[in-house]
Design a protein that fits this description.
The complex is a heterodimer of chains A (258) and B (548). With 258 residues, chain A is mainly alpha-helical. Helices cover 73% and strands 0% of the residues of chain A. Chain B contains 10 helices and 19 strands. Chain B has a 15-stranded antiparallel sheet that branches. Chain B has a two-stranded antiparallel ribbon with strand order 11-12. A two-stranded parallel ribbon of chain B has the order 18-19. The chains are: A mainly alpha (258), B alpha+beta (548).
């Protein structure tokens, strides 16, 4: 039963031409932005306060926007072309439909995210030593053999998966694609900008600690003590948001007319 | 029987204009009749105001018996140009009534500054172990003519500096270079200021006929003119003489968009000789004064001077310069008109959603075919859409910005934040610029929406182009790369919100996070306009070629 639903959702997403392009775009944009950030950062002397793992994963902040688009594509387009009525007629257990959709989108995000993260780390490994981030300056070559780098890499892939779930949940609640992507991008970009600008320290701390942006802390490998919230704790905050929004989306799907 | 002449097939200019007005009206009707778009614009305005006034506000500080924020506000002098200024120095002076000149030779300029973790800006004499010999780049010693010893007075000064050679500076914000190079006993610097008072008739008529000319010389024989300044606000009697001051040593480590700044106090000592006075000087003896607030002074807690054999040795600390925002402002908790406008980012996302949806919704519903059938000149449809949604965004942005500023600034003051004074012209530019930012971003979204035709992709593209470069510049990228991004991407447009200028004669971090942008306000805004125009042109081209 459930496998039918899953395969139906998979078929729908697979046969839309946009999906493959979007996944490729996630990987390309992420690696390109990461490589550009690597290339722009130099370490001329001894004391460079740079977290090279985090730096070489900068592109995640660009790629996540396209993950949001992918989620919107899978949910909202069904509402805009009326497909949702067919879907729900064929599979009347609505929360199963949403679960299947979330699972498929999340898997695609994890897949694109894995390529994006590996590509970004490879770019960092190739570019950073040329910019002075050498062992002479106290920087080891980026490697997944390093525990904290591996945690940041795996965590970044999971982060993209959670962003996909969050976006599917928001899409199920909002249903209109333009507003959904606005809310998703507002969550992804407005919060960090506000955290940088909000002068009130109480609000500053609240934003960094309790909003989905806490999830990006999973990328930190140095200065962990000065983080407002730890790497895994931060990712858990994002997971909690994603779960809450998905449940809310599922309930609304159950209660509302499609 | 002749048939009436058929109407000419071509349209006249007048009817073209009328038809464009019809297209415009049709688009306006579409916009206002979709409730979601109107609500979206109201939401955008509320976001701008809410974020700016409540989240943007600084934390409250309390002073005085009632712990009121307003009691914390420092008394900061305002210069003749209306800027907040530092005006503290050691001054060895005599009154001058009428025309006159002062000449002095500077044979030495030396100093101390606190190094290590010398962050205690107002400490009363730090441990001697923390002192380092050396000058701050903008340590200043020279001769000055000032209206009075009141802080913020009009003045003209000729000076030698720590590492910027001879300078002529006046009224805090103006700076002209003279002879380069440092002062030593082997290469002293001669400085001269000549005051020529205006005619009484001119003064009565409100003209500023008082002029001061500054000269410098390496040998006291060959003089060159550095500049001539017209001054207003000099009374009948001016104060003139020797001055020494030395600002906070600010060690800026630029990194990650912001910069970490270490500030530590400094002090300078200069030796003057061959002091020559000509003109209507008072016969009163020299008087030495500490003017204004001094950061500290390692020797005796204040500056001082000694006169022996016609040699003046003067020690001072402080600065005669405009105050800048952000780190490097000398410990003043300051903010500016730009702070309550940080909500612009929230409003921007909402406006971009509406702008893109205004086009893509027509594709989704198939309305575009009807629209293009009704007005076959496709470029005009797009232009009308951009104008309608841009105008609505402008009006919304203007109201929201005025509200955010008028609610936000009193709140900042009540919480003990000093609001840096800006000219009315600057205030108008920042507020109207915020509204224009909304308008152009919406038009940009219309263009990208017509190119991409899918709302989610169009909105993501515009947000990635406008907001992400800014975010990366303030959080991840090193200063140079961040500045580059804010020159070449649409995010350059935020420069229109910069309210405080950078001064080359004040060393400070000037971080992007404190509202300092690499491009001048209008140039940055022009970059955003360029992107929007490019998107609209490409969209028009594609709209004409593609089937709807």
């Amino acid at each position: 039963m459930r496998s039918h639903v899953l395969s139906a959702e998979w078929t729908k997403l697979r046969t839309v031409s946009g999906t493959a392009w979007l996944m490729a775009a996630v990987a390309v944009l992420t690696v390109a932005v990461s490589a550009a950030a690597d290339a722009a950062t130099k370490c001329p002397g001894m004391a460079c306060p740079v977290d090279t793992t985090k730096l070489s994963l900068t592109g995640i902040q660009a790629g996540e926007a396209l993950i949001g688009v992918l989620a919107v594509l899978s949910v909202c387009s069904e509402y805009s072309n009326g497909m949702i009525r067919t879907t729900l007629a064929a599979m009347p257990r609505r929360h199963t439909v949403l679960t299947a959709k979330a699972a498929v989108v999340c898997c695609l995000a994890l897949l694109a995210g894995t390529v994006a993260v590996l590509g970004s780390l490879l770019a960092g490994r190739l570019i950073l030593p040329g910019n002075g981030f050498t062992s002479a300056h106290g920087f080891a070559l980026l490697s997944l053999g390093n525990g904290s780098t591996a945690r940041a890499a795996v965590g970044s892939v999971l982060y993209l998966g959670l962003i996909a779930l969050l976006s599917v949940g928001i899409a199920a609640m909002v249903r209109d694609s333009a507003i959904t992507i606005g809310v998703v991008l507002g969550t992804l970009y407005l919060l960090p900008v506000l955290a940088a600008f909000v002068a009130n320290p109480v609000w500053h701390r609240r934003i960094e600690r309790y909003t989905p942006m806490a999830g990006l802390n999973i990328q930190a490998t140095t200065g962990l003590r000065s983080l407002v919230i730890g790497p895994w704790a931060g990712l858990s905050v994002l997971a909690a948001w994603a779960a809450a929004v998905l449940v809310a989306g599922g309930l609304l799907l159950q209660w509302r007319d499609a | 029987m002749t048939a009436p002449a058929p109407a000419p097939a071509h349209t006249t200019v007048g009817s073209q204009r009328a038809s464009f007005a019809r297209v415009l009206r049709a688009e306006w009707t579409k916009f206002r009749s979709v409730r979601g778009w109107v609500i979206g614009m109201i939401v955008a305005a509320l976001l701008i105001v809410f974020v700016g006034v409540f989240l943007g506000a600084n934390a409250s500080i309390g002073c005085g018996p009632n712990l009121s924020g307003a009691a914390c506000l420092p008394k900061i002098p305002i210069g003749p140009g209306g800027q907040a200024v530092n005006d503290s120095y050691y001054f060895v002076r005599r009154p001058l009534t009428g025309n006159g000149s002062i000449t002095a030779r500077v044979t030495s300029l030396t100093g101390y500054y606190a190094n290590g973790n010398g962050t205690a800006q107002t400490a009363q004499g730090p441990p001697q172990a923390n002192l380092a010999h050396g000058l701050v780049p903008w340590s200043k010693a020279g001769i000055i003519i000032t209206a009075s010893t009141r802080q913020g007075s009009a003045y003209v000064a000729m000076m030698v500096t720590g590492s910027h050679g001879v300078r002529m500076q006046w009224n805090y914000v103006n700076d002209t270079a003279g002879i380069p190079g440092a002062v030593t006993a082997a290469s002293p610097r001669w400085l001269r200021l000549v005051l020529t008072r205006g005619t009484p008739a001119g003064t009565a008529a409100g003209r500023s006929d008082d002029t001061v000319t500054g000269y410098d010389s390496a040998d006291g024989v060959h003089w060159s003119r550095v500049g001539t300044v017209q001054l207003t606000g000099l009374g009948a009697t001016v104060q003139s003489g020797l001055f020494v001051t030395s600002p906070l040593a600010s060690k800026v480590t630029p990194f990650f968009g912001g910069a970490s700044t270490q500030e530590s106090p400094s002090q300078a000592t200069a030796v003057f000789d061959r002091v020559g006075l000509r003109g209507a000087w008072s016969s009163a003896p020299w008087t030495g004064d500490n003017l204004g607030r001094h950061w500290w002074s390692p020797s005796d807690g204040a500056g001082g001077y000694r006169l022996s054999d016609g040699r003046f040795t003067v020690t001072g600390s402080g600065d005669i310069a405009p105050i800048v925002g952000g780190p490097g402002s000398g410990g003043v908790p300051s903010t500016s008109i730009s702070q309550p406008l940080v909500g612009v980012f929230a409003g921007l996302i909402a406006v971009v959603v509406i702008g893109a949806a205004f086009v893509t919704a027509e594709y989704r519903r198939g309305l575009i075919r009807l629209t293009l059938a009704a007005s076959p000149r496709r470029g005009r449809v797009l232009a009308a859409k951009a104008i309608v949604v841009g105008s609505v965004a402008f009006v919304m942005g203007l109201m929201a910005a005025v509200l955010a500023v008028s609610l936000g600034l009193p709140r900042e003051r009540a919480q003990g934040q000093y609001v840096m004074p800006t000219s009315t012209l600057t205030d108008v530019r920042v507020i109207v610029g915020t509204a224009a930012l909304m308008a152009v971003a919406a038009a940009f979204a219309v263009g990208v929406g017509a190119i991409v035709r899918r709302s989610a992709m169009a909105i993501a593209t515009v947000i990635l182009a406008v907001v992400l470069p800014f975010l990366l510049a303030v959080t991840v990228l090193p200063l140079g790369a961040g500045e580059w991004l804010l020159r070449v991407t649409p995010a350059a447009g935020f420069a229109i919100q910069q309210s405080l200028p950078q001064y080359s004669q004040v060393d400070a971090a000037y971080p992007i996070g404190a509202g300092y942008y690499p491009l001048p306000p209008l140039a940055g805004f022009a970059v955003l306009c360029g992107f929007a125009l490019l998107a609209l042109c490409l969209a028009t081209f594609l709209l004409r070629r593609r089937d709807a």
